[in-house]
Amino acid sequence: MKKLIVICLTFIFTFVSCFSVNFILKKAVSVNDFSNDKRINLVIDAGHGGMDAGTIGVDGANEKVINLAIAQKLYDFAMVSGISAFLIRNGDYLVYDENDDKSRSDLYNRLDYVNSIHNSLLISIHQNHFEDSSEWGMQIWYSPNDNQSPVLADKILNISKMNLQPDNKRLNKPSDDSYYILHKASVPSVMVECGFMSNPEENKKLQDDKYQNELAYSIMLGLNEYITEEL
User: Fold this and answer.
1) Which of 21-35, 140-154, 208-222 has the lowest mean pLDDT?
2) What are the tens digits of pLDDT across the range 157-176?
3) Phi and psi at residue 226, in whole multiples of 5°?
4) Do the beta carbons of residue 146 and residue 154 sit within 8 Å?
């Protein structure tokens, strides 16, 4: 009798779990069901890495760690929803292969990686910092080289505001040459500054696993909306 109860409970748990995932990702189903020539390949760039820690939070936290955590979660959401995805880095390192010419910078290698993927779309994950510790909220920089990058940026920011930051008044901006990858990109490309590590409250949230999942999921929903409405 106990064995039967365990089997029934396991079945119910499995059914509910599958239903929940299906409900959460209902907007994502088949969003990338194109021919191979039109299929979007999402390239996810976790900013910084290795000796380059990125910005430092008010508690000493490293941006590179937060970037990678959110990037990995975004990758998981993309793969579950049927979108082909690639991580530029999947660990704590700068982007060099064993035989790379070290005279080339990490940024050159990241751009080369994006260009090596057919029909790619770039989402780069970063965190912000400002001398005024009251500044907070997501903001997105986009490549000025095509008319799809600002559209993608707006989709992501609008959904993130709706889901997580309804009081966020920030606007997206085109990148200048200080953002090398965006400035040189030839494909739809955005850099998501998820929040301010100089803000004590937001810095703490950015290190929280649940909040990182919520950020990654909101970015994913923005991408899904871009794919379904614009492509």
Assistant:
1) 21-35
2) 999 999 999 999 999 999 99
3) -60, -45
4) no
**Three-class DSSP labels, the chain:** CHHHHHHHHHHHHHHHHHHHHHHHCCCCCCCCCCCCCCCCEEEEEECCECCECCCECCCCCEHHHHHHHHHHHHHHHHHHCCCEEEECCCCCCCCCCCCCCCCCCHHHHHHHHHHHCCCEEEEEEEEECCCCCCCCCCEEEECCCCCCHHHHHHHHHHHHHHHCCCCCCCCCEECCCCCHHHHHCCCCEEEEEEEECCCHHHHHHHCCHHHHHHHHHHHHHHHHHHHHHHC
Backbone phi and psi for residue 34, each to the nearest 5 degrees, phi listed first: -110, 175
pTM of the full predicted structure?
Answer: 0.84
* Cβ atoms 222, 30 nearer than 8 A: no
Residue 125's DSSP bridge partners are 46, 192
Q: What is the pLDDT of residue 39?
A: 87
Report whether pLDDT(18) > 50: no
Token pair of 216 as six digits = 């990654």
Q: Report the first-to-last Cα separation within the chain, whole angstroms.
A: 54
